[in-house]
Amino acid sequence: VVDSLSQAHRVIEFPTVTKDGGRLQTTSEIFGQNVFSLKEMSKMLPKPVYKNFVKQLKGNETLDKITADAIAHAVKVWAIQRNASHFTHWFQPLNDSTAEKHDSFLTLKSTFVDGFEEVTAIDTFSGSQLLQSEPDASSFPSGGMRSTFEARGYTVWDTKSPMFIQDGPHGTSILYVPSVFISYNGEALDEKSVLLRSAETLNKTAVEVLNLIEPKDEDHPRTKSVYATLGTEQEYFLIDRALYTLRPDLKITGRTLLGGLPPRHQQLEDHYFGKIPTRVLAAISEAEYELARLGVPIKTRHNEAAPAQFEVAPIFEEAMLAVDHNMLTMDVLHRVAHRHKLKCLFHEKPFRGVNGSGKHCNWSLSTDQGDNLLDPSSSPETNLRFLLFLVATLKAVYDHGDVLRAGIASASNDHRLGAHEAPPGIISVFLGTQLNEVLDAVEEGRAVNLDALGTQLQHVRVSGTVLDLKVTTLPSISRDLTDRNRTSPFAFTGDKFEFRAVGSKQSVSFPVTLLNSAVASTLMDMRDALIKQKGDKDVASKDDQLAVIRDFIKQSKPIRFEGDNYSAEWAEEAARRGLPSIGKSSDAFGHLLRPGNAAMLRKTGVFSEAELQSRYHILVEKYCKDVMIEGQTLVTMVMQQILPAAFQYRRNLAEAASSMASINVQADPEIALLNQLTPLVQDLQAETNGLCALLNKMIDIEDVEVLSKEACQEALAAMNRIRDLADGLESHVSDKLWPLPKYTELFFNI
Ligand code: ADP
Ligand code: MG
């Protein structure tokens, strides 16, 4: 380990980017180099073929064989120019990661030379290979939807997400074809298909609502499409790889199951926004370089609150692309960290006692004209539109907060949620004082002058008050009219919502799918309300719109909360308001099937009944497996590493005491320490035996619902007790004998 550590601290070379006249290329110059973008396609495809493809993208036509063949040929040529040897359908099965199976372009062809048949090799890639592939799908989670005897599954090219290349071995590369994964009967077996469906229904209903309020006007074309935008702030830890390999708990479960806090960790608040360590910066910048070439628009990097914790954030994009790009970001960070002898930890709580990691999902709605529908605008024409979409989101979160909670539930996120570092299990929305006042005024029917409302809303976003910095050489800055509320699980932050409860490790696809669907569903209600309100008028008048807005404000009022979400008072207040409080994930999964939620997910066409059941089953089963794997790992570590170390130390002390006694020297100190150790060791042994027996019983419990709610909770409690005892030993046993790298080493060797 020491060798490897000193190796890691060699002079670190920053990645050298191709030079151009002696100057390093800027990020914008390398951006998207490895992507088969629309621009690249338009250069390489015959015009009519390209036009056909664009029509298909707009949803007006299905892709015909000739177009598919032409695109396959063009992308093959493009990829081979970039050293591609293989292609793969790249998809997102229901296990929070991505899957790929590589096929080479190699095809054999018979030719006749001088009357003899000879086999020659050529590179081919056909339209049908591009469009569809059939992986042996029997080993992916399906939640009982697919029995092993009908194990067919298909990956189908998702034309909305561009193809790209990534490095392969020996200077080669691999062509990635983003795909969805469906069963023989067309049921979703992945994250992407349901996300696409949610985007489609959101688009359709949002456009219907907009067309009810947008006058038919030659100069202002009506909105044709609406899409969700997403920016994911990804938190993660980086630790030394050699030390990581000595921690079976980190390797197997992604988090430390043992380990006490060192005297200094995050209490000095000196890590957040601190200087990024050199080795880490080298790794991050190399990852950013690769990501830029993949067209992932990384914008921000910084140290986070806990030691060895960092964050990366992109510029927001259309949600479907942002989801792919977040998966790529995690993948590239993981791989590049390896090269720098670092290990990237995406688990929500790798270390007990310091902050865990989340993935804030910044979400908004945008039109094909590039208008952000959640941007309070200065123009009186659009502030009612803003209010409509704002209250639709409020109502969606009010009606379906529990399904959003289910969408972020996992065994790992439980260690972070509600731990005074992340939002609790009660979903509420923070709007800020100014916006709350606007909504109150509308609700109470106070004289709301529409133009004045416009100016008021403008204030929320733009101006604020000017802060006097009391130093003449500093420019004055404006202050946002509302401060942030970091404790809120779902906060309005000026022109978007920030869903903060999402876990760092999970795919954001599922929470975004659920959010899109819930909003689409309330927009359907809003559409119907507007139609009723407007009567036989062409479009809804301002008063019609205000009436609908008022109604939605009233209905969704209990979801708004501006105070401290971590406080005990809020838990009581939320209970009075009837908001569900779902502390444990094992209690959250069932809310997916709550009739109101299931009806919403079916009505929007996002999930079929069977798909929803299967999703529920997969999540609960995964939860149980995670807990059981952790329990088994802990038992192994205690039996094979911790107890032997404690026994050895006891023997050392006993031998020391007896040799002291033999020369008539007081052995009291050794004996005192032995007496302290003995009950710890006894208790640890007993608890571990108890956990072992419990785990053996759990294997036979077939009903995962029962398993997750009872046995798993019992196992988690036992694991905590074992940890406390083992951490007690860690602070007593000689450091020389302790078999695991401690938090001090893990935190401060990067
Ligand atoms: P914060 O508000 O958390 O201080 P930023 O304003 O920089 O930080 O935004 C955080 C993330 O939100 C970034 O990834 C950013 O691209 C994203 N974001 C900004 N505007 C939108 C939007 N309209 N829709 C979705 N995401 C957005
Ligand atoms: Mg943020």
Automatic annotation (TrEMBL):
Annotated GS beta-grasp domain residues: 85-186
InterPro entries: Gln-synt_C (IPR040577), Gln_synt_N (IPR008147), Gln_synth/guanido_kin_cat_dom (IPR014746), Gln_synth_cat_dom (IPR008146), Gln_synth_gly_rich_site (IPR027303), GS_Type-3 (IPR052725), GSIII_N (IPR022147)
Gene3D superfamilies per record: 1.20.120.1560, Glutamine synthetase/guanido kinase, catalytic domain
A biological process term (GO) from this entry: glutamine biosynthetic process
Entry GO MF terms: glutamine synthetase activity
Residue stretches making up the GS catalytic domain: 191-642
UniProt family annotation: Belongs to the glutamine synthetase family.
Protein name: Uncharacterized protein
Gene (name only): ABSGL_00841.1 scaffold 958
